[in-house]
Amino acid sequence: MDWMGLLVIPVVKGAIILLLLLTATAYLTLFERKLLGRFQVRLGPNRAGPYGLLQPLADAVKLFFKEEVVPHHVDKPVYLLAPLLTLVPALALFAVVPLGPSVHLFGREIPLSMGDVNVAVLYILAIGSVGTYGVMLAGWASNNNYSLLGAMRTSAQMISYELPMGLFVVSLILLSGTMSVTQIVEQGRPWWAWLWLWLGFPFFFITVLAETNRSPFDFPETENELIAGYQIEYGGFKFAIFYVSEYLHMITTGGVVATLFFGGWKGPFVDRFPLLGVVYLALKILAILFLFIWVRASVPRVRYDQLMRFGWKVLLPLSLLYLGITALLVVFLL
Amino acid sequence: MEWLFFALFALVALVGSAGVVLSRNAVHSALFLLLNFVAIALLYILLGAQFLAMAQIMVYAGAVVVLFIFVVMLIGNDTIDDFVARERPVLRVIAGILVAVFAAALVYVSFWAPNGRPNGAPTFGAVESVGELLFTRYLLPFELASVILLAAMIGAIILAARTKPPVGRPED
């Protein structure tokens, strides 16, 4: 049996990606606070280390040493399970994102993605649909009216926005003729297909914002009406897991968006230096993260009924229309 | 190697389904159901039916169980407990019928039904083959199912629209 290829390489790859993702997550919090500071004509955190670079470390240490409290009125097993159910889907999403073309190391060809499966696009949708559980169960298990209300709202929102998101992804599958993410990245497209894809991008990005619960759709965190939604009863490390999951989810969805819409690791000179692909992908993700934070700094939170109305009455018909036109384009032009 | 994974996933599926029946709490039952669905999806992957596995997670784990939990959250556990206590005799009859049906199916599958992987079709659960079958051999059932789903959807919308004024508008 090929232990090296079946076990050692995937485990090492997974560990490296995990480490990179978690470090990136820690620094994304700093990136967001710095940027928000700039948007609001402040400096942002700048006390811990030069330019505040040690701030994430300080935050992590603080959260680690907080007292763990489990309130006695919660449903304990579900209460403890919920943070994990938000963390795992956020992390698992990244498994199908190719980081670059294959590299040659120690005399073997190593593809720079965890799983190159031929249903990768469906995998993305499936993981996205499972992501609702963490929020829902946290709200229910907390046994707190505010938590429950927040959880109900958030899950209704996530379910409503999954539908147009799925339809946009179906259009993308039609346009590419494949469900393998690697092939979507590697195949060439005529210029009008890119144009049509990018025309749909703003709408897809709105669904992504709703799916990751980011502003202006950050209903779990409506401090002014629900205190903090499903997170109220969580403190210390359990809260940290929710917090990390949110930022991790931003990065992994950023990776998915960069891969599906902007050519993933592609860029000049990648065929000569394969590792350059990782750099390009990271830069693209960074640009998308900037977009996330930019939106947060500029757009106020929408009202809940506006959100639902927009999802069902604007985004859903639009995504159906987009799907129809894509089908016509594929049949007549491709 | 394959049988090891099969045993593991099958065990998880069994634990999940036992948990569904034995849990006292409706949300716990739904969570065990989720576990069961995920284990079944993994069994599909072992069979090489990746599309079925993903569809299983998307539809059953991602939509059906979410809906269950949503309903339980909406009407509350106590209401369900009251209902169960009140309708126990009727529920017993229904459960008995269901057990009989599933026992019959189990006996049929273990003794008479063809077993294992369909011959000569290693890609029977891949996207292409499922799509082809749906649009050729099973076209009529497929279309019928969509019509029934559409009818159910329209019915649900009519029911919801009749009992309530426009949804979710706060008194502003």
Task: Tell me about this structure.
The complex is a heterodimer of chains A (334) and B (172). Chain A has 334 residues and is mainly α. Chain A is built from twelve helices and two strands. Chain A has helices at residues 3-39, 55-64, 76-92, 120-130, 132-141, 145-176, 181-186, 191-211, 223-226, 236-261, 276-298, 304-333, and strands at 103-105, 108-110. In chain A, a hairpin with a 2-residue loop joins β1 (103-105) and β2. Chain B has helices at 2-22, 26-46, 50-75, 77-86, 88-111, 127-135, 139-163. Chain B has 172 residues and is an all-alpha fold. In chain B, α1 (2-22) packs antiparallel against α2 and α2 packs antiparallel against α3. Chain B is globular, with a radius of gyration of 20 Å. The interface between A and B is medium-sized, with 34 and 27 residues.
Give short descriptive properties of this protein.
heterodimer, A: 334 residues, mainly alpha, two-stranded antiparallel ribbon, 12 helices, 2 strands, globular, B: 172 residues, Four Helix Bundle (Hemerythrin (Met), subunit A), 7 helices
User: What portion of residues of chain A belong to β-strands?
Assistant: under 5%
What separation lies between the terminal Cα atoms of chain B? 63 Å
Q: What is the tally of beta strands of chain B?
A: 0
Termini of chain A, distance in Å? 44 Å
For the largest interface, the chains and their residue counts are: A-B, 34 and 27 residues
Tally the helices of chain A: what do you get? 12
Overall 3D form of chain B:
globular
According to CATH, the fold-level topology of the domain at 1-80 in chain B is Four Helix Bundle (Hemerythrin (Met), subunit A)
User: How is the main sheet of chain A built?
Assistant: 2 strands, antiparallel
Count of helix runs of chain B: 7
Mean pLDDT of chain B: 83
**SSE string of chain A:** HHHEEHHHHHHHHH
